[in-house]
Design brief:
Helices cover about 65% and strands about 0% of the residues. The protein is mainly alpha-helical. The chain has a two-stranded antiparallel ribbon with strand order 1-2. Helix 4 packs antiparallel against helix 18. The longest helix is centred in the middle third of the chain and has 34 residues. The protein starts with a helix and ends with a helix. Belongs to the major facilitator superfamily. Proton-dependent oligopeptide transporter (POT/PTR) (TC 2.A.17) family.
Amino acid sequence: MACLEVCKEDKFKEGEGECTFDGTVDWHGRPAIKAKSGQWAAGIIILLNQGLATLAFFGVGVNLVLFLTRVLQQSNADAANNVSKWTGTVYIFSLVGAFLSDSYWGRYKTCAVFQGLVILSLASYLFLIRPKGCGDELTPCGSHSSMEVSLFYLSIYLIALGNGGYQPNIATFGADQFDEDDPREGYSKVAFFSYFYLALNLGSLFSNTILGYFEDEGMWALGFWMSAGSAFAALVLFLGGTARYRHFKPSGNPLSRFGQVIIAAMKKCRVEMPPDGEEELYDVDRKDCSMNGNRKILHTDGFKFLDRAAFISSRDIDDQKRGCRNPWRLCPITQVEEVKCILRLLPIWLCTIIYSVVFTQMASLFVEQGAAMKTTISNFKIPPASMSTFDILSVAFFIFLYRRVLDPLVSSFKQTSSKGLTELQRMGVGLVIAIMAMVSAGLVECYRLKYARKDCKHCEGSSSLSIFWQAPQYALIGASEVFMYVGQLEFFNAQTPDGLKSFGSALCMTSISLGNYVSSLLVTMVVKISTEDHMPGWIPGNLNTGHLDRFYFLLAGLTTIDLVVYMACARWYKSIKLEKKCEENDHEENFRV
């Protein structure tokens, strides 16, 4: 029976109102009722959950570089590398969460399980390394045993697994609460991604200010306890909204579906296909809504070789007469188009990695740069990590500016039905602003060195240049995030097939992950090359004898090259073509009524 008929049947039986038309179900597996599920009632719960969960995560991550240098006595370069590797691992684990969500567990269960893992990891983290009376700017801690350090790394990497598995699913799960086939809810779904990223940044605001202050003063245990409490509150709030959520059913293992297309196409590599053989491609019965409840993807011309997987050969006809189909020889065109969609996304995704290299400097080298500047106003000391508050405020400002000013303004100039800048255009703008941020950071470092003492030992606060000169580079990074990361979330969510939505969000996280690994690799290479002939190098332990400005200018140059490549990839990209959910005409009639 078609999905619309099931929805109508349940609606009239229970007298509860109109069902959603995107295939979502409620907690009991029945078609979701619009008036009693999803929308902003569920969306706000998820936004609050995201804010609290982010507070917990950044309570560990925001000052991790200082924890490594002050408590574990690591050098600046080693600490920056370790933070980059850890942050990269957080986001690489997003692929694990996305796979479990899309294939087996569904997004709700995956979010709940991985949030629970974060709480357990934070609780164990509290009891591993507990510096007392040390770990502030002036009182470094003593040495720790190899067992303590090993358990410490085990704990923070478990936190990486928990948060990495949670992040891509909560973004997609929030978007699931809005029916994109409903014009009103479809507009709310686009807005949700902006507010989601705002909630993420507001959650980190508390971490970067209050928790950042406590941890900068050596009160690490208090900061970690507050992070654990926030994670627990986030989980309780998430579970409290269970009855209101809408759910998409898992679609099965995507790896096997991808493998079937590749193998089937290779088996028919010698089969001659007619020049215009689209009508001879295998498709599922149109009486079914789609495969596994998902919308069908219309045929596109790119990657012609893969079309062979859906070409009906004489052997396939014989198999169908016997009432069987070998999925490793003949695949529906929607399954083939799934593979094409991912292949088209890869060049765009690769171009976002260099941007993530720029973004990750906020958690490492920006903090170390700030620590070497004047951090006091009267008798109050400003924690270097708290300068990322300017990034958060910039994100909030530019989200408001874009949604309320720039988007309507651009729409009026375009004079079309489309809204404002496309996702690809916004991502390009983000790259341009990122270049400006790195140039700003490099110029600030030039002036910091001009007013710095070269003979200092620890060099904390060794420059008379105020830390507030970092504000522009943080604000520019924040502005670039609104265009790059929000646009990226919308783009990958819109351009991935229905059965791979969590994977689309995981691509965003994996871009950040690889950006951190590339950053770590770049720092290692720069340190190795710049320290030849007994030179102090660009990023020495004493930044006043180095040239951190040159590293920032190097990143600006790499991002400029990346922008050129990205523009070429964006011009080549072709959007996914989806068939509307079953019986769209009935849907439009119901909406008008």
